[in-house]
Amino acid sequence: MRKFKKIITVMTMMTMMTMLTGLLAGCGAKSDAESAASDKVLKVAMECSYAPYNWTQPDDTNGAVQIQDSKDYAYGYDVMIAKKIAEELGYELQIVKLDWDSLVPAVQSGTVDCVIAGQSITSERLQMVDFSKPYYYASIVTLTKKDGTYASAKGIGELAGATCTSQLGTVWYDVCLGQITDANILPAQESAPSMLVALDSDRVDLVVTDMPTAKAATVAYPDLTILDFTDTEDNFEVSEEEINIGISVQKDNAELLEGINGVLDKMTIDDYNKMMDEAISVQPLS
């Protein structure tokens, strides 16, 4: 009898252990599924050196995001937009720092999910990647020294003969500089900061850029002034697509594009301008 009871007891214990294991396994499966959902990563590429759109800083002040494989952090208007998109779509945000010329290839190859880096929605880029609706509308302006030869110019006709440059691979360099009569166009600069250094060091008389970059530049370089010919008949001729700033994604990535546009659809131009002003107010001064 004792032996029989012992067998029953052992069998009962084994049954209970099996049930407990099953319950634990079930809980584990649910946890894994929840974890998988929360582990979705949105890899966003940018230069991290293009204030006020994006820049690099040493800590997480103002909600900056750590850059992949770096001790540094990224912040700026583009990071603010990226954080909003990632939060609303349920992604963990990962910032990837790349050179300007590497941004589009990174999207094409799938190395990153999208680029949020102050890119104009040009026809040339649309052949390589898809773009979201605009997340900023950036008018094109000129920057020069307050005491410079061209500081009082009222239109691009009065910029004739200027020595000038702008950033590589931008509408500013490829489309606008050539519209200045007899311009002495120097080689394009690799980044916005290097473009501004060229102006600050008097290597050029002026640079052409967009309004957010110009506003940020006048904070960092108080001796610069903005020439805005937007409301004149003597302005740079550019298409709407060239001043509309969008988020690029891999061709045919309809799901991500739809998600991004869904977030942007909830925002207004006033929302964009408020965020840009905030980014300019906290940007590094160098």
Report what the structure shows.
There is one protein chain. Strands 1, 5, 6, 7, 8 and 14 form a six-stranded mixed beta sheet that branches. By secondary structure, the chain is an alpha/beta fold. Helix content is 40%, strand content 20%. The chain folds into two domains: 41-137 and 242-282, Periplasmic binding protein-like II (D-Maltodextrin-Binding Protein, domain 2, 3-Layer(aba) Sandwich); 140-229, D-Maltodextrin-Binding Protein, domain 2. It contains ten helices and 14 strands. Helix 5 (171-176) links the parallel strand 10 (163-165) and strand 11 (184-185).
Which features characterize this protein?
disordered N terminus; 286 residues; D-Maltodextrin-Binding Protein, domain 2; 14 strands; 10 helices; alpha/beta; 2 domains
Strand content: 15-25%
Largest sheet: 6 strands, mixed
DSSP helix fraction: 40-55%
The structural class is alpha/beta
Shape: globular
- Per the CATH scheme, the topology name of the largest domain is D-Maltodextrin-Binding Protein, domain 2
What's the Cα radius of gyration?
A: 26 Å
Ends apart, CA distance between termini: 88 Å
Q: Based on DSSP secondary structure assignment, what is the total number of beta strands?
A: 14
Order of helices and strands: HEEEEHEHEHEEEEHEHEHEHEHH
CATH classification, class level of the largest domain: Alpha Beta
Q: How many helix segments?
A: 10
Low-pLDDT residue spans: 1-38
